[in-house]
């Protein structure tokens, strides 16, 4: 949830749950700043930062951060970092498909696969009556 997807930069927040099998779960409440292209399913960037709670090993509160690059059709590459104790740090690299950016928020590729209800209509798109 956040500010308007029509703005050059959108700001909002997200709640992230990362489960590590046979270990435990990391919970994070992150603030996000994202470019217009990222929010609307095209090329763009997003930065996340906020507190995190690890429920395994030594547990405790820490800080989580992530930088994401988005490409058309929902493709996202993310580099993440978490610090929970001096001895407990995490680095992650993720390549995946964001289903919301592929379907609801997609404004690219309309000639091949139209999106009947995009979050933001581009200036060249006809307006609904």
Number of separate helices: 2
Based on Cα principal axes, name the global outline: elongated
Low-pLDDT regions: 125-129
Instruction: Please give the share of residues in helix.
Output: under 10%
Strand order of the biggest β-sheet = 1-2-3-4-5-6
Largest sheet report: 6 strands, antiparallel
The fraction of residues assigned to DSSP E strands is over 45%
Task: Kindly report how far apart the N and C termini lie.
Answer: 27 Å
- Overall mean pLDDT score? 85
Report the structural category. Answer: mainly beta
The total beta strand count reads 6
Q: What's the structural domain tally?
A: 1
Regarding quaternary structure, what we see is single chain
Q: Secondary-structure element order, as H and E?
A: EEHEEEEH
Report on the architecture of this protein.
It is elongated, with a radius of gyration of 17 Å. The protein has 129 residues and is mainly beta. The chain has one domain. Helix content is 6%, strand content 52%. The C terminus is likely disordered. The chain has a 6-stranded antiparallel beta sheet with strand order 1-2-3-4-5-6. The longest helix has 4 residues. β4 and β5 form a beta hairpin. The two termini are 27 Å apart.
Descriptors for this entry?
mainly beta; 129 residues
In brief:
By secondary structure, the chain is mostly beta strands. Helices cover 6% and strands 52% of the residues.
Per-chain topology:
Blueprint: E1 9-20, E2 24-35, H1 36-39, E3 44-54, E4 60-70, E5 75-85, E6 88-97, H2 99-102
Antiparallel strand pairs: 1-2, 2-3, 3-4, 4-5, 5-6
């Amino acid at each position: 949830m956040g500010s308007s997807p029509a703005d050059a930069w959108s700001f909002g927040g997200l709640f992230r749950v990362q489960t590590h099998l046979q270990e435990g779960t990391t919970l994070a409440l992150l603030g996000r700043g994202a470019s217009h292209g990222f929010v609307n399913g095209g090329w763009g960037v997003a930065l996340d930062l906020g507190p995190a709670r690890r429920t395994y090993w030594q547990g405790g509160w820490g800080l989580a951060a992530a930088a994401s690059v988005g490409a058309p059709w929902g493709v996202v590459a993310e580099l993440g970092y978490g610090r929970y104790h001096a001895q407990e740090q995490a680095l992650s690299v993720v390549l995946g498909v964001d289903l919301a950016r592929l379907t609801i928020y997609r404004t690219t590729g309309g000639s091949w696969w139209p999106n009947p209800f995009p979050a933001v209509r581009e200036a060249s798109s006809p307006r609904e009556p």
